[in-house]
Amino acid sequence: MRLVGVDVGGTFTDICAIDEEARRLHVYKVPSTPDDPSRGAVSGIERTRFPMNEVDRIHHGTTVATNAVIQRTGARVGLLTTHGFRDVLQIRRTTRGELYNLHWHPPAELVPRRRRVEIDERMSADGEVITPLRPEEVVEKTRGLVEQGVEALAIAFLNAYANPAHEQQAAEIVQKHFPGLFVVTSAEIIPEWREFERTSTAVVAAYVGPLLEHYLEKFDSRLAAAGYRRDLLIMLSNGGVATRRDLRKRAAHTLMSGPAAGVVAAKRIGDELSEPNVVSIDIGGTSTDIAVVADGEPRLASEQEIEFGTVVHLPVIDVQSIGAGGGTIAWVDQGGALRLGPGSAGSEPGPACYGRGGTEPTITDACVEMGILSKEGLLGGEMPLVPERATESLQRLGSSLGLTPLETAIGVVRVAVQSIALAVRRMTLERGDDPRGFSLFCAGGAGPMLGALVAEELGITRLIVPRFPGACSAYGLLQSDVRRDYAQTFARPLAPKSWDDARRRLTEMEELGRQDLDRDGILRESQRYEYRCAMRYYAQTHELEVELASDATVDQVRELFRQAHEREFGFVAGPEEPVEVVNLRVTAVGQVARPQLGGLPRAEEEGRRAIRSTTRKVHFTSERAEEATVQWRDDLAQGDRVRGPAIVEQYDSTTLIPPDWTVEVQATGDLLVVRGGG
């Protein structure tokens, strides 16, 4: 079996190619091509030298949807909504992004008010028709939107989660009279209550849908021309994959496509190393993605907020991103403080040390100046560096602070480490977890470079550096199963009779999942189902979601909620306090075959590769330079140990091992780095 994972990032496109028969894994990195990401992706796939007609699966992680929202390059969208609810998108949740800043203004809505049109229809909260839909009004209002140049239409009617008939009828009318329009209805994406969240999710799906469809069509065409004959599988934010035909109305499910794959890789590798609790930091060219795997499972969130007021209310792997990547630009604010981001040098022109015209100092430039990165070049020498340009950029920045280039570089790295450590604390300490009880999983091209420094800041004593950290998301793509989520608002008190009805609805959703997985060609023995229930004490504003067994009793469900409430808020109400079941959710998982790879030879085996070793000075402080051992990772065998200060270099990353840290090479090829491991 030959498998290829393709993860398109802001700076590089990462390729992970697995030849299962040869039990070999190869990674490649090519510059991303923002004007047409599929061009760089196909170029990277061609480097594998696999005949395209012999490739069994291609899994793809994409930032097309995310970039479209952030950069405002999506489709021109119109919205049909119930009379009186035109301004739901603008009102949002009646909160402010900066509460005490009188000059703060929220970002513009994806659909301006002139393209938000009211339809005189109404459903009750019980799904009863109050005001019937008039087809002629739908045609007339939609025609007005089309005359404004609308390319996609979101339909979000009040209480459609209880009865989607009006939304479905309106969609059929629109598609009959305006067949070229891309149409999304809210209830088919998220059949749950809360009008803002459902409307916002539908609008995002309509906004990114045409763009994603066009991109995937182009990518499919390039692959077909090269000889690929199978489905292209796209990574979803929930950690699963789906085919292109399934994504027409599910485009919003791809917004965390690449980062989700990195967390799947952290989970799989953690499983192999018997490390069930890990904090993943994936430091790429433009950002750091942080996630938590607890008890062997990635933490999920019920929604993500792409920017203030743009919410996608869908199950996602809980990933938080900050602007601290290798290409993040350092600068000095008006108060004279050293700052990082959010600006990035990207792949073009890139950091100053790339020698491509970039002049502003970045984290990569700082690491070159400190000696952490080789001045000879990156990607095994394929990408030469110009270290003098790094020094010049840091000198310009440092002159305003009265610092030398080296002192400035150390300051830049310290700020980056502090920023990442603070984000990790938000994901752990602020949610009741002590980060010292976790291992730090260091992915991305810059993750192993800064990982030990972040760990020291957090008091973490164990690091995991995967075999190919710079292509970890591409590897995670190939470890991802098919996943489909089904949800339904229940909104009834938790009681024996109502819970019987809830279990019946869970069973119905499970059957829907079974039918979809059957259509996907997933064998019954490879199917499994996860059940979740969102609950709250009566009259609370928000609910807590718990995972439960399919045959859970009402008392077991109540106890699961009490445990979750105490963990989240530190208290539980008395047993007489009524609990309300708000939403029911089923996830259907179609398990795909895991690629099997060969392990590393043992250190004592004959015929192992000779270890090449050099040294170079690494400046941990401006006063102290350590003579660090430099080794090439491909030379290391299972059981080899490397004591810090040291640097382990490889094609796609550089691992920094400070003094008092020790690396041991695992059978899987991953590095386990332990503080005080002597």
Class by helix and strand content? alpha+beta
Total number of helices:
15
Helix amount: 25-40%
Strand content: 25-35%
> Main sheet?
9 strands, mixed
Arithmetic mean of pLDDT: 91
What is the CATH first-level class name of the largest domain?
A: Alpha Beta
Within CATH, the superfamily of the largest domain carries the name ATPase, nucleotide binding domain
Radius of gyration: 26 Å
Q: What form results from the Cα inertia axes?
A: globular
Identify the quaternary structure here: single chain
Organism: Limnochorda pilosa
GO cellular component, one term: cytosol
GO molecular function: 5-oxoprolinase (ATP-hydrolyzing) activity
InterPro entries: ACX-like_C, ATPase_NBD, Hydant_A_N, Hydantoinase_A, Oxoprolinase-like
Structure description:
The chain is of the alpha+beta class. The protein has three domains: 70-211, Rossmann fold; 264-480 and 604-678, Nucleotidyltransferase, domain 5, CATH 3.30.420.40; 482-590, Dna Ligase, domain 1 (2-Layer Sandwich). Helix content is 30%, strand content 28%. The chain is built from 15 helices and 35 strands. Strands 13, 14, 15, 20, 23, 24, 31, 34 and 35 form a nine-stranded mixed β-sheet that branches. A hairpin with a 2-residue loop joins strand 14 and strand 15. Helix 9 (363-370) crosses helix 10, helix 9 crosses helix 11 and helix 11 (405-427) packs across helix 12 (447-458). It is globular, with a radius of gyration of 26 Å. The two termini are 41 Å apart.
Key traits:
678 residues; alpha+beta; Rossmann fold; Nucleotidyltransferase, domain 5; Dna Ligase, domain 1; nine-stranded mixed beta sheet; six-stranded mixed beta sheet; 35 strands
